[in-house]
Amino acid sequence: MKLNLSLGFDVGCGKAGVPSKGSFTAAFENAISAGMGAQKRRMGGKNGLASIEWGLSLQIVEQDAGLALNQRYRQKAYATNVLAFPADALAQKQGWLGDVVICKPVIEQEAIAQNKRLKSHYLHMSVHAGLHLLGFDHLNDADASAMEALEAEVLLGMGIANPYWVI
C-alpha cells in the first residue's frame, strides 16, 4: 500500500514541533492498512477499498480555522484536535481517501495537558483520522473500544505507547 500525502500549512502556521511529511505518511499508511485489514476480517474477507495507491490531504491549521471548520461541519463552537472528511464512494474507488485537518494549537495544548510527547500526539491523531476516513467511529461504547484498540495496536507498531492507558 502506498500513500501520496499532500501536506499543507495554514497561513501563519509555523512548522515548529510538527512531524515530518514522512512521519505523517507512515502513520496514515499504518492506520489505513490496519483499518482495511480489520474491515476485511469483519466483512468475511471482503473489503471494497482494494486500491494499492491512495491519495490524502493533510492541512495543519491555526485556532481560528479549526474553530470555523468545526462550527461549519459539526456545529461545535470550539476548535477540535482533528477533523476527517472521507471522500465519497466514487472518489475512493479512484484512490482518493479524503482530507484531514489538524489544529496545531489544540494538539499542542492536549499534549501538555495529557503529558504526551508532541510528535506522538500528532501521529496518534493522524492514525485516528485515518481510521475515520475508512468509516471507523466512536459514537457508542462498542465502536469506541474497537477503534481505540486498533489505534493502540497501530501506534504500538510505530513505537508509541497506548494513548488510552490511564496513568
Tell me briefly what this model is.
The protein has 167 residues and is α/β, with parallel strands linked by helices. 49% of the residues lie in helices and 18% in strands. A four-stranded mixed beta sheet has the order 1-2-4-3, sandwiched between helices.
How large is the radius of gyration? 15 Å
Strand content: 15-25%
CATH architecture: 3-Layer(aba) Sandwich
Principal-axes shape call: globular
Poorly predicted runs = none
- The CATH homologous superfamily is called Metalloproteases ("zincins"), catalytic domain
Q: Give the tally of β-strands.
A: 4
CATH class wording: Alpha Beta
Describe this structure in words.
This protein is α/β, with parallel strands linked by helices and 167 residues long. Helices cover 49% and strands 18% of the residues. The protein has a four-stranded mixed sheet with strand order 1-2-4-3, sandwiched between helices. The longest helix is centred in the first third of the chain and has 22 residues. It starts with a strand and ends in a 10-residue tail after the last helix.
Keywords:
single chain; 167 residues; alpha/beta; Collagenase (Catalytic Domain); 49% helix; globular
